[in-house]
Hints:
The chain is mostly helical. The protein is 74% helix and 3% strand. The chain has a single domain (30-229, 259-328), classed as Rhopdopsin 7-helix transmembrane proteins (Up-down Bundle), CATH 1.20.1070. The protein has twelve helices and two strands. Strand 1 and strand 2 (179-183) form a beta hairpin. Helix 6 (187-231) packs across helix 8. The chain is globular, with a radius of gyration of 23 Å. It starts with 22 loop residues before the first helix and ends in a 16-residue tail after the last helix. One of its GO terms (biological process) is phospholipase C-activating G protein-coupled receptor signaling pathway.
Amino acid sequence: MENRSSSKVDTPTNISLGVGGLPFSIFEYKTISVFLVLTICGVGIIGNTMVVTVVLTTRDMRTPTNCYLVSLAVADLIVLVAAGLPNISDSLAGTWIYGFAGCLGITYFQYLGINASSWFITAFTVERYIAICHPMKAQTMCTVSRAKRIIAFVWILTSVYCMLWFFLVDVAANNSQQLECGYKVSRNLYLPIYLLDFALFFITPLLVTTVLYGLIGKVLLQSRALHHATAQGDLTCQPSLMAGLGRLCLISTEAPLSSFFLLQVTKMLAVVVALFALLWMPYRTLVLVNSFVEHPYLDRWFVLFCRICIYTNSAINPIIYNLMSQKFRLAFMRLCKYREEGLQRQNPYLRALVIMLCNRVYFSDTPSLLSPSTVGHR
């Protein structure tokens, strides 16, 4: 176990809770970490399960973009279950309790969920780019069947790639004789592997999505200017303009409501990408620095902060959908209403709990900067 500054989400620096600090500080760390991780993972598991359920059970929600969002929700569920929940047992027990097979399986699924989610974010960004910037091509390229093939390809490719981690992890005792699931390869071997992973599943997706959203923003600004001009009676949609702006010209003059929803969905997906970059930055920076320095930075509170950011990234997407997408919000409400009617015949106490969660967590009427009533307005 030569390398202890790993990139594993569950224990990225393999900090032992029994090393250093007073007993109270250890108890404090365990209490806070278990509470935060359990709360975030619980909300995330419920929210992502709802996303999968409403898309699969609602016919008008089965769009190419939503297919990618379902796959992203499944990847986030894998991260929350494989990374978040084992972190709770680590905090409570202070040692690895899942054995060698558990170390292999949990590490594999962590990376599978992490890597797949980054490419699904890239996939729906490409889909939005084609739909907005090349609307004529979108009629044949942006279809549900094509989205399903791309999703299957991403899952297969990522599953094969992540098998690499079966040969890199092992269970061993640390200096305090507590078991840890960590890496058994030397830093010289691990560093190029990590840098490849870093480039393929973080830097490349961010670069691609940044460029594409820049192009999307340019087209949407042109569409808004065109709509303003036609509203003033200064411009008529000519064939040349139709060739340049595609369906946006038609949308801006004849279907402002469709233009609003197009902008709403694009803003929602852009927020998802921005949060992915922001919430993954602390952890990626920590591991990148620890891969080069002789003495890795092992502050347990900062590592906990990095973990919480990762779990929050996997848990927050359903909340973003609810705040910024009217279709998702209505679908969530219908799902809660359906569950409420079923529970009404079974358990009145459980029914009251579901009503409270639906009203307070997902469907709050509190004004928000991200609410649909403010999207698209200045």
